[in-house]
């Protein structure tokens, strides 16, 4: 098959870029695959694209590029959903380039056969909407959700409820999020399917688990809660002076995390390592992997750490860790806000090398079986060869129930407002 991946920015580091490159490279063994990035801001991508897979960009953001001077780059777009966090970047030029590319991919309709595709897989919520609205009927339209349903604001959910049924399939990273999208957006059951991200086998040797190092990696953003990790490490390592914590990544929370490290007097024991790629050699230098997120759409770093043979201590947050880690077998799942339990789990693994080795071996074996590219690619090939059948619109019964619910809420709100007005009027008169 001819398969096109549509990415927001393939030239930046991010979990979506990493997993798209992994999946595209694996599919390219048997299919004609290409990657299209909406934006480009540098000469070369930070991550290495899969060999043999062409990468092109639709909008060049570099200062010397003609696109920077195009007046459409300063006009607001019309179709990219406003509630999406990247909406301000989708000006008229970006929207027109995406829509033109989608139209050109229609099998048998494009003037350039090199751009035609049997399937388009878009990898961001807003791009899923554009694919649903403007993707040619002759092409399979598959949207990927790398964000959880709960991460979408209400105004965006209304847009998704309107347009997502036009997709041929919507892929979430976890089963829990598939259920959340079906229920929260009232989508047809057959439209939504869960397929995890794939993580290829690492070329780095597995960790020997003898170094007294805890490793964490990911964007330095509030949802990752690295301040909680620093606090938990402080408690666990207080009586274990040889242990160190390394945090890899970049982001808006760096200064806050650094301040927390200084406040606790941990500058010699906790280091912010910055963004590093590839990460496999860094995982292999550790003995425990740590995740303290409030929410995960999947948990790529969890699987990457397990691939390198590390046991993972993770918060049991929605939605990813529970579908990756087997608690007590290849890692530990800790209640999301229980700092005491999290630090105790770290301390347990710090004190027990045999437990680390046992869990690390189980983690490596489990990740190789469940998240290997061939496993995930097989799931996508099944989806591409036989997309699920589902009605183009939400069944009428759920729509009636939803309308009744909304009408009831409005009536209750109006009644409460009238009662409040009467109470105020009586208070003024008295």
UniProtKB/TrEMBL annotation:
Q: Which UniProt keywords apply?
A: Glycosyltransferase, Transferase
Pfam families named among the record's database cross-references: Glycos_transf_1
Domain (Glycosyl transferase family): give its ranges.
206-365
The GO terms describing molecular function are:
glycosyltransferase activity
Q: Does the keyword Glycosyltransferase apply?
A: yes
The record's annotation in Gene3D superfamilies points to: Glycogen Phosphorylase B
Q: What's the domain of life for this entry?
A: Bacteria
- Please give the SUPFAM superfamilies that the UniProt record associates with this protein: UDP-Glycosyltransferase/glycogen phosphorylase
Which residues fall in a compositionally biased region of kind Basic and acidic residues? 64-77
Query: Is ATP-binding found in the keyword set?
Result: no
Please list where the region (Disordered) is annotated: 64-84
InterPro entries, per database record: Glyco_trans_1
Q: Known PANTHER family for this protein?
A: D-RHAMNOSYLTRANSFERASE WBPZ (PTHR12526:SF627), GLYCOSYLTRANSFERASE (PTHR12526)
**Protein name (record):** D-inositol 3-phosphate glycosyltransferase
Q: What is the lineage of its organism?
A: Bacteria, Bacillati, Actinomycetota, Actinomycetes, Kitasatosporales
């Amino acid at each position: 098959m001819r398969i096109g991946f549509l990415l927001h920015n393939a030239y930046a580091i991010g979990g979506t870029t990493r997993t798209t490159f992994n999946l595209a490279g694996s599919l390219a063994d048997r299919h004609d695959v290409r990657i299209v990035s909406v934006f480009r801001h540098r000469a070369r991508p930070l991550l290495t694209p899969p060999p043999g897979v062409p990468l092109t960009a639709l909008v060049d953001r570099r200062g010397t590029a003609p696109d920077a001077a195009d007046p459409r780059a300063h006009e607001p777009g019309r179709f990219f959903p406003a509630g999406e966090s990247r909406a301000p970047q989708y000006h008229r030029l970006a929207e027109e380039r995406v829509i033109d590319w989608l139209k050109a991919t229609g099998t048998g309709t494009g003037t350039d056969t090199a751009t035609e595709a049997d399937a388009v897989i878009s990898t961001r919520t807003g791009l899923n909407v554009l694919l649903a609205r403007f993707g040619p009927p002759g092409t399979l339209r598959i949207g990927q959700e790398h964000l959880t349903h709960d991460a979408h604001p209400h105004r965006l959910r209304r847009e998704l409820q309107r347009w997502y049924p036009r997709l041929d399939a919507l892929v979430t990273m976890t089963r829990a999020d598939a259920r959340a999208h079906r229920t929260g957006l009232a989508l047809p059951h057959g439209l939504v399917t869960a397929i995890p991200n794939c993580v290829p086998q690492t070329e780095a040797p597995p960790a020997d688990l003898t170094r007294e190092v805890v490793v964490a990696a990911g964007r330095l953003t509030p949802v990752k809660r690295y301040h909680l990790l620093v606090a938990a490490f402080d408690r666990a390592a207080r009586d274990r002076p040889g242990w160190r914590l390394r945090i890899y990544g970049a982001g808006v929370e760096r200064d806050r995390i650094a301040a927390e490290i200084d406040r606790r007097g941990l500058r010699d024991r906790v280091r912010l390592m910055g963004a590093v790629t590839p990460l496999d050699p860094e995982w292999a230098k550790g003995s425990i992997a740590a995740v303290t997120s409030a929410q995960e759409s999947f948990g790529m770093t969890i699987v990457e750490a397990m691939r390198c043979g590390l046991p993972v201590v993770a918060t049991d947050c929605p939605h990813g860790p529970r579908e990756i880690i087997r608690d007590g077998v290849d890692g530990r799942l800790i209640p999301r806000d229980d700092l005491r339990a999290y630090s105790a789990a770290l301390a347990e693994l710090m004190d027990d090398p045999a437990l680390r080795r046992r869990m690390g071996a189980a983690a490596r074996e489990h990740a190789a079986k469940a998240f290997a590219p061939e496993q995930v690619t097989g799931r996508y090939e099944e989806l591409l060869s036989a997309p699920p059948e589902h009605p183009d619109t939400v069944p009428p019964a759920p729509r009636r129930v939803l309308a009744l619910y909304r009408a009831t809420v409005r009536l209750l709100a109006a009644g409460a407002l009238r009662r409040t007005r009467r109470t105020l009027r009586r208070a003024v008169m008295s």
